[in-house]
Design brief:
With 166 residues, the protein is mainly alpha-helical. The protein has helices at 26-42, 47-53, 56-75, 84-89, 96-113, 116-141, and strands at residues 10-13, 19-21. The structure holds protoporphyrin IX containing FE.
């Protein structure tokens, strides 16, 4: 049995049937998204991917989409209507190193912003989604999945303090 995250008083049901920890709301999701992408955009490895794919004038809309994605995932709001895989298939330069960095920066961000039970929930979901995106991308590219090792956690990179977009 896997260890459960620290317990907080639950509030309402998510679509998964699990209970949403108290304090997790749209405002917290928005803070996580804004902080994470400000950091991601300045990162030496994944920053260039974002800067190439999402021009400045689409950046705000991108953040709104991502906030909808997490709101659907964690609060069951149903606001995200997109199809993320084709967007990621188009990013031909991304590989395991990008996923590991993405996940490490995400962990750093939620640990900075959220209480421990909520951070644990974000991390668990990000790793599940990240691994499934990675497998889908590899399948799409025709890679051999039989001998694929699971993604390992990257040590947190040196802290990147977000700049003017923070
Ligand atoms: C690991 C977990 C990841 C999650 C949960 C995630 C989630 C998402 C979502 C929900 C979208 C929006 C798709 C839409 O517009 O409907 C998106 C777009 C995007 N993601 Fe990811 N992503 C992940 C990993 C990555 C990685 C590793 C990269 C590259 C370093 C990346 C780069 C992008 C870019 C550039 C877009 C915008 C594509 C476009 O609008 O043209 N993502 N992601």
């Amino acid at each position: 049995m896997s260890a459960s995250p620290p317990q907080a008083a639950p509030t309402r049901l998510r679509r998964t049937g699990a209970l949403t920890p108290q304090g997790l709301d749209e405002a917290m999701i928005r803070r996580v998204v804004d902080h994470f992408y400000a950091r991601a955009r300045e990162d030496d490895l994944i920053g260039p991917v974002f800067r190439n794919a999402v021009p400045d004038d689409r950046w705000q809309a991108h953040l709104d989409t991502i906030a909808d994605f997490w709101s659907s995932m964690l609060l069951g709001s149903g606001r995200y209507k997109g199809r993320p895989m084709p967007k990621h298939f188009a990013l031909t330069e991304i590989g395991d190193a990008h996923f590991k960095r993405w996940l490490a920066l995400f962990r750093m961000t939620v640990n900075d912003i959220c209480p421990p039970d909520i951070a644990a929930l974000f991390i668990e979901r990000s790793e599940r989604v990240g691994n499934s995106f990675r497998l889908n991308i590899r399948l799409h590219r025709g890679d051999d999945l039989v001998h694929l090792e699971p993604l390992e956690r990257e040590e947190l990179p040196p802290r990147v303090e977000p700049g003017e977009n923070f």
